[in-house]
Design the sequence.
């Protein structure tokens, strides 16, 4: 069997014959000229070298399928991974209560099936909160790790190929939680969300949380104005003022290492406003800030290195040993491209942010709407709860 990892964590374990079955199904649906070549069958038992060669070929095959917009987004591919995830983690299909956090720490409990995919769970949460259907696409579920100070470190946006309940429970660690947060970057979309009471409350709670955790920069006078608006419960005016502040709508990442402007620099990366913002501490202790626009990135890649385990075949290397890197090729000046590397456990989340910024820019360019970016499942049965849960306002800002 072959292990498939997501973020360095075991997602599922599949056999060659299962992957061959998936390959044949994709060929039937999309044609042989669209689907990448599959590692051939062998009549005789494989040698250790051939086993490793096949593993590498299968890895390339799975990545090629996942990166193809048609194949990677297909229900055939995603349902294969969801089913394999459930079987590997040995979690039977049954009704469970899943706790989803809001930005203000409020817990929303939804009754779902363990086999419900990300979209089903998102819809169940939206239904419980009474969020209208046409606003569901503005929000996403994220897997986060709660830090000691009560803040969240973002692991990844939950994908369509996974089952949220299985993803969070299989980690066997109460620090991992699922949180609901807006999933767009352009603050002009805030207007759509603020039209509805629940959307306004969710956006307000997230903005207050980002200010409290220092993600949005606020000076003393701005802080005084924000506090005054909170006391008057002027939520729209509060958000309008926050929109003018530095790093509004950015996602802040944990401190990590970069090779820009020189090797071994400590950096705090924030993603937002169609850019990656760097706050770099150089070896000389000097702090330097700069931004990399996604429109000037030619390409990017995520690489992971996992040391070979000497233990039994079932043992997995310690989480700290998995090294993830995001590297992007950037147009520094008219004729000069340069690779910039970020070494961070959150490299995959950074890549997801870059991809969603590009997707959003493409939708805007084509004159599309973010509402259309959210595809409702037509035949996915969804049990809607009768009890509605209002989004409570967060406590007042603390200075």
Sequence:
């Amino acid at each position: 069997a072959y292990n498939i990892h997501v973020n360095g964590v075991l997602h599922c374990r599949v056999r060659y014959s299962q992957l061959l079955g998936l390959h044949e199904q994709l060929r039937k649906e999309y044609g042989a000229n669209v689907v990448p070549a599959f590692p051939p069958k062998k009549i005789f038992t494989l040698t250790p070298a051939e086993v490793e060669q096949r593993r590498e070929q299968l890895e390339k095959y799975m990545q090629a399928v996942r990166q193809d917009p048609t194949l990677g987004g297909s229900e055939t591919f995603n349902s294969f991974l969801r089913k394999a995830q459930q079987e590997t983690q040995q979690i039977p299909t049954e009704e469970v209560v899943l706790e989803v956090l809001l930005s203000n720490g409020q817990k929303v409990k939804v009754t779902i099936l363990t086999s419900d995919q990300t979209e089903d769970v998102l819809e169940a949460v939206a239904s419980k909160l009474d969020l209208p259907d046409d606003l569901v696409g503005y929000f996403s579920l994220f897997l986060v790790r709660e830090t000691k100070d009560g803040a969240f470190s973002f692991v990844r946006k939950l994908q369509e190929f996974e089952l949220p309940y299985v993803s969070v429970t299989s980690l066997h660690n109460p620090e991992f939680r699922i949180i609901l947060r807006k999933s767009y970057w352009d603050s002009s979309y805030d207007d759509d969300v603020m039209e509805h009471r629940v959307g306004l409350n969710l956006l307000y709670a997230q903005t207050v949380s980002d200010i409290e955790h220092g993600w949005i920069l606020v000076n003393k006078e701005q802080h005084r104005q924000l506090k005054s608006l909170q006391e008057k419960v002027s939520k729209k005016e509060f958000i309008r003022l926050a929109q003018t502040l530095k790093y509004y709508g950015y996602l802040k990442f944990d401190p990590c290492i970069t090779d820009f402007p020189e090797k071994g620099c400590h950096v705090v990366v924030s993603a937002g406003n169609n850019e990656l913002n760097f706050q770099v501490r150089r070896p000389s202790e000097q702090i330097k800030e700069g931004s990399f626009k996604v429109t000037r990135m030619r390409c990017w890649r995520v690489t992971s290195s996992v040391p070979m385990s000497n233990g039994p075949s079932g043992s997995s290397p310690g989480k700290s040993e998995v090294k993830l890197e995001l590297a992007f090729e950037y147009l520094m000046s008219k004729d000069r491209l340069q690779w910039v590397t970020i070494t961070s456990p959150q490299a995959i989340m950074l890549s997801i942010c870059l991809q969603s910024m590009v997707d959003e820019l493409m939708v805007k360019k084509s004159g599309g709407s973010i509402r259309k970016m959210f595809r409702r499942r037509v035949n996915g049965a969804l049990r809607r709860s009768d009890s509605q849960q209002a989004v409570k306002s967060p406590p007042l800002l603390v200075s």
User: Anything to note?
Assistant: Confidence is low (pLDDT under 50) at residues 310-320, 375-399. The chain has four domains: 2-89, 91-183, 187-249, 251-305+323-368. The domain at 187-249 is CATH 1.20.80.60 (Acyl-CoA Binding Protein). The chain has twelve helices and 15 strands.
